Amino acid sequence: MKSLARVRDKAEVLRRLRALRPDSARQWGRMSVHQMVCHLADAFLMGTEQKPVSHASGFRERTIVKWIALYAPVHWPPARIKTRPEVDQEIGGTKPTAFATDVESLEALVEIVTTRPGFFAGRDHPIFGPLSEAAWMRWGYLHMDHHLRQFGV
Fold first, then answer.
1. Does domain 7-150 bear CATH number 1.25.40?
2. How many angstroms separate the CA atoms of 4 and 66, rounded?
3. Global confidence as pTM
4. What are the extents of the domains in the chain?
């Protein structure tokens, strides 16, 4: 299973991230490519106290949905899980500034997340609840993959 913990998988998503252009067209959803870059950065920060996010988790989300999302051998479908308002760029998420700068910031954040053991230690995902470090790395890869596919890369 692909994960940001694996050097090859991390390199793959970073290559795809660098292939984005400010005019990359979305395949689904309402975010612009620039908003999506900021959304991904915010989503990593939500795993820390740097971006507090409200929880929307129940038994079903913490068990069945989490297992399917992290371990079922299928791509995440378009727009199945509602974005938390704090990481929605049209509501409370970080507003885009300069595209190249925001991409570089996301790359740097991916580097930090993947090279600092315990980055997510003790943090709950707002929908899936408690995640191990390995599960956070799996989620990070899947979340990036989902949104990169949203823009055709």
1. no
2. 18
3. 0.92
4. 7-150
